[in-house]
Every structure is written in structure tokens, then in C-alpha cells.
Amino acid sequence: MPSRSPALVPTLVEPYRLAAEMTWSVPLVIGARLVRIARGGPRGKHETRRMVTEKTSAFAAATVAAAVATVTAPTAVLAHGLAPIHRTVRANRRRLLRR
């Protein structure tokens, strides 16, 4: 059985780590956002606008990162593609769950 190179192992594990953290964070972000939107007012409208623009920019960044990684680091395409979405989700979780 061939052994994996040490540099390749983190590349293989990273997408799973990102996905696991997003699995925990996404429901928290959705819940916090729904509460803000349900309360209405300017804050609810702002949150709705922000939600749409953040998703658009995060998925655009993910597409570009995955495309660039296809050429520069083929084994890390998934990790590079998930990273911008993961950053956005993590930032939203921190922002929305602050007291």
C-alpha cells in the first residue's frame, strides 16, 4: 500500500473540516437571520439585502477560487472552492450571534 505524502494529507482533510464547521454554523446563521427578518424594520430589510449580496459574492469567489485551483493545485480544488463560502458563513455566525 503506497503511503500518502505528508503535504497531501491536509489537502485531503481540509474540505471535510470546512464542511463540518459549516454544518454546525449554517443552521445558527439561518435561525439568527430569520429572527432579524421577522422582527422587521430597517434592520430586517438590511439583513435581507445583506444576505443576498453576501451569497452572490461568496459563490462568485468560490467559483473563481476553484477555477484557479484547478490549474495551480488540482488536489485542493474542493478546499479552495469551499474556503470563501466557509469564511462568509463563519463571519455571519460571529456577527449574528454577538450579544
UniProtKB/TrEMBL annotation:
Keywords for the protein's UniProt record, in alphabetical order: Membrane, Transmembrane, Transmembrane helix
Bilayer-spanning residue ranges: 58-85
Name assigned to this protein: Uncharacterized protein
Organism: Pseudonocardia xishanensis
